Automatic annotation (TrEMBL):
InterPro entries the record matches: SS18_N
Domain SS18 N-terminal, residue spans: 13-69
Family of this protein: Belongs to the SS18 family.
Protein name as it appears in the record: SS18-like 2
High-level lineage: Eukaryota, Metazoa, Chordata, Craniata, Vertebrata
UniProt cross-references to Pfam families, sorted A to Z: SSXT (PF05030)
Organism: Cuculus canorus (Common cuckoo)
Length: 77
């Protein structure tokens, strides 16, 4: 399951670090590859679930980026 699917009670409590961001980026890479593969095989309807997960991950990453003040250092490793 995607790391962006955090239970409501844990939201805002997890530390965002370089490892977490890297894992999420790698997951997005895999999702994109699956989506492209399904689409190339003419199975576009089968890739909808992956598109939803990718969308959620991208929104999560954008939210983290927007929350960081300008010129802030990278998240802790």
């Amino acid at each position: 399951m995607s790391v962006a699917f955090v239970p409501e009670r844990l939201r805002g409590k997890a530390e965002v670090n370089q490892e977490t961001l890297q894992r999420l980026l790698e997951e997005n890479d895999q999702l994109i590859r699956c989506i492209v593969e399904y689409q190339s095989k003419g199975r576009a309807t089968d890739c909808v679930q992956y598109q939803h997960i990718l969308h959620r991950n991208l929104i999560y990453l954008a939210t983290i980026a927007d929350a960081m003040p300008p010129g802030a250092p990278k998240p802790a490793e």
